[in-house]
Amino acid sequence: MRYAHVVVDIPTRALEGAFDYSVPDELARDVEVGSTVLVNFSRRPSVGYVVALTERPASGVPASKIRPVLQVLAPSAFDLGAARVASWMAREYACPPCEAIRPFLAPGQLVKIRREDDASPWQLVCEKSGPVDDRWVCLSEDGKRYEPRGNASRQRAVLDALSAGPVRMAELAATINGAAKVVAALERRGAVTVETRRRVRGSGETTLSSAVAPRPQRLTDGQREALSAIGKAREAGRGDVVLVDGVTGSGKTEVYLAAIEQTLEEGKGALVLVPEISLTAQTVGRFRSRFGDDVAVLHSRLSVGERYDQWDLVRQGLAHVVVGARSALFAPLANVGLIIIDEEHEGSYKQGQSPRYHARELACRMARERGCALVLGSATPSIESLARCRAGEWGGVRWTRVSMPERPGSSVLPTVQVVDMTQQFGSGNHSIFSDPLKKALEGVIERREKAVLLLNRRGFATFLMCRECGCVPECPHCSTSLTYHERTSQLVCHSCGQTWPTVAYPNPATQCPNCGSRYMGAFGIGTQRVEDELALILGDRAEIIRMDADTTSEKGGHQRLLERFDAAECAVLVGTQMIAKGLDFPEVTLVGVINADTTLKLPDFRAGERTYDLLEQVAGRAGRGDRPGRVIIQTYWAEHPAIQAVARHDRQMFLMSELAEREDAYYPPYARLANVVATGRDVRAVTMAMDDLAASLRKRLAGEREWEVLGPADCLKSRIKDRVRRHVMVKAPAPANMGVVVGGCVRDLGRRPGVSIAVDIDCHDLM
Ligand code: ADP
Ligand code: ZN
Ligand code: ZN
After folding, report:
1. Which atom of ligand 1 is nearest to the CA of 213?
2. Burial of residue 303, with CB atoms counted within 10 A of its CB: 0-12 exposed, 13-18 middle, 19 or more buried
3. Do 359 and 393 share a domain, yes or no?
4. What number does the ligand 1 atom closest to the CA of 253 have?
5. In this structure, are 439 and 464 located in the same domain?
6. Is 219 in the pocket of ligand 1 (CB under 6 A)?
7. Contact, 419 vs 437, CB < 8 A?
8. Ligand 2 is an ion; residues with CB less than 5 A from it
9. Ligand 1 neighbour 249 (Cβ under 6 A)
């Protein structure tokens, strides 16, 4: 008799581990590690996942007391190594074990079962995603000589359509009337054959001219050094990390491609993570152009069916390179030889919902589990990664930094000019555009080049503000300032999404809700306004393309705009953060930052780092071709180290001041930081839960001098959708096992009706 270790899918912190079930002989072949099974738990049929198989029950319960696995609901989706990583994730991030396993399951699989009647077997309910077959019609050898009768014009049309190769039935049906009947007749005569082929969704084509990766004649010194370090890490086979610290355009992608090539030659596969936002056809195209159909793509903008097909390609061993967002880490790739995280500093690698893992940390763990190498790439590595490389070792593996300070060939880093906007204002220029930026734009138009303008919008959008008392209207359900959308004259809450026509807020909106003044004006700027003002300056001398959440909300919208920018003769791309990354257009010679400092004002210890990263990244979009690039940064805070460091291409300058501040305030990388947030409608219940948690943490950590418990306090966003939010923060020494301590205290709180509690270890979102 064999036994299965099963994690039951009941998302509660009270259930800590896996439970033993016996495997009946008739299921012995189908119950594997990674299978989804049906078991009885507390006398109710429940979904569970097999995380291990053993010869005897692990828990020491007498075999006679152990219940059987009832049914297999889905075939294996993960292996033993993945199961171990999931178990680590549950402990490290204090989440229920089943939530740590779910990301490994087939896309579309839900935790729902149903059956026709009491006698039938149970079935998993899945989102519509199963395989899709297409019927293809091909011309047979006989068909090539087949002569339809003179009046059989539709037969002729079908044969014509097939002369260049097989065509999908659906396509024939769409173009030729009654195609199905005609094909059936031709099939009877042996002129055509019809075959069923599995359709692979999500492998879309790209038309961007820059989406190919021509193999360079020779690698730069930096690239060779990086490759050799990666080679050593692969040989060591214990999860060593190589940080490729290369300025934008230094050829990091080429390093990835070469390292993947070597990995494939060894018969192993590679996982490549790219921030969701830069996972464009351009990025994917560069990998496809080198590895063709060996590439599977996984990200959240694909439909469930597309994700399922791409995932299944990997599981079947038909694709060995997975390019995707952070969730690509969970792809069922056998024999992982290399994991790559591009733009490793990106905030989007931190998952916002349970399991709240950070892709970098999860990848570290996986690389150790698989004995493969982990490559982190960035022009602005995270302060955490830099600190580990300086130590040379972290978490039992080696951390090596390789620097690539130059761009290949003639391309040089752009010159950077900082423009102090208070001086512009003082000298009478009240426009969004400073005089130097206007002049530079004129130059771009004259030379028929391209420019990119960044509007730094995180945090500050357009507000309706009272000119007399400074009041900004807030959402009545969330403590969020409402933003003002000029085109539609609407006020929008970006926490809950509710909108108000300006005339209805709070009564007539022209009146301040605080002092009754009638001088309510729009303050701050949106991409829309930049676009409008730009149009006044440029007229029709250049195409203006706006890229923000509004213009890219449709599927493929992001890519269509990039294609337009690519195809234009002379154009200006105006956009938010999303334009800062990954764009590689050689004709871009000017980058303008409209407002560099807005992110500096956010109440977050990473504000300086994020601003520095953003400016450095967007600056790297200029001058990637033969013509030199120029960057103009407009700011009201010209002397801030983050801005000065970008202007001088001197990261060290920023790091020095930033690290001193972090050490002083005991923040990462000197400490770990966790945030526990309670939300609920009942203020008293929420308050009590957080009071109890803080007390329990303080008791548990009494005498631990390096641990700190902060709060409880209201969150910065103290209300969202009519729910109040309070939080407790915990600081711990960097190597501490924080998830176990914080998770343990949260578990001890027990069930709190009406209060939901989110534990965020190594939190990035402090709001
Ligand atoms: P990064 O990813 O570091 O921003 P890319 O990999 O996009 O940089 O490279 C920038 C440009 O340089 C690309 O157009 C790429 O094809 C080219 N390139 C990369 N490596 C070399 C090389 N060794 N020789 C010549 N051109 C190269
Ligand atoms: Zn007012
Ligand atoms: Zn709201």
Report:
1. 16
2. middle
3. yes
4. 6
5. no
6. yes
7. yes
8. 466, 468-469, 471, 512, 514-515, 517
9. yes
DSSP reduced 3-state for 666: coil
Q: How many domains does the chain have?
A: 6
Of all ligands present, the nearest one to the C-alpha of 495 is 3
For residue 409, tell me if it sits in a domain.
no
pLDDT band for 213, please (50, 70, 90 cuts).
low
- Determine, yes or no, domain membership for 271: yes
Task: Report d(CA 761, CA 372) in Å as an integer.
Answer: 26
462 lines ligand 1 (CB under 6 A): no
Residue 766: CB atoms within 10 A of its CB come to 17
CB 341 within 8 A of CB 376: yes
Examine residue 172 and state whether it is found in any structural domain, yes or no.
yes
Nearest ligand 1 atom, CA 220: 23
How many Å is the Cα radius of gyration of the chain?
A: 29
Q: In angstroms, rounded to a whole number, what is the distance separating the alpha carbons of residues 651 and 419?
A: 20
User: Based on the domain organization, do 230 and 301 belong to the same domain?
Assistant: yes
Mutual angle of helices 651-665 and 607-619, in 10-degree steps:
160
pLDDT tens for 451-465 read 999 987 644 456 676
Residues with CB under 5 A from ligand 3 (ion): 475, 477-478, 493, 495-496
User: How many other β-carbons are positioned within 10 Å of the β-carbon of residue 246?
Assistant: 26
The residue whose CA is least distant from atom 16 of ligand 1 is: 213
Q: How far is the CA of 684 from the centre of ligand 3 (A)?
A: 21
Q: What is the pLDDT of residues 240-263, one digit of tens each?
A: 999 999 987 789 999 999 999 999
The number of residues making up the chain comes to 767
Determine if ligand 1 sits within 6 Å of the CB of residue 408: yes
Could you give the CA distance from residue 370 to residue 329 in angstroms, rounded to a whole number?
12
> What spacing in Å lies between the alpha carbon of 481 and ligand 3's midpoint?
9
Give the per-residue pLDDT at 207: 44
238 pLDDT band, cuts 50/70/90, is very high
Residues of the domain holding 251? 221-404
Q: Is residue 215 part of a domain?
A: no
- Ligand 3: centre distance to CA 496 (Å): 4
Atom of ligand 1 nearest to the CA of 210: 14
> Same domain for 160 and 272?
no
Q: Which atom of ligand 1 is nearest to the CA of 214?
A: 16
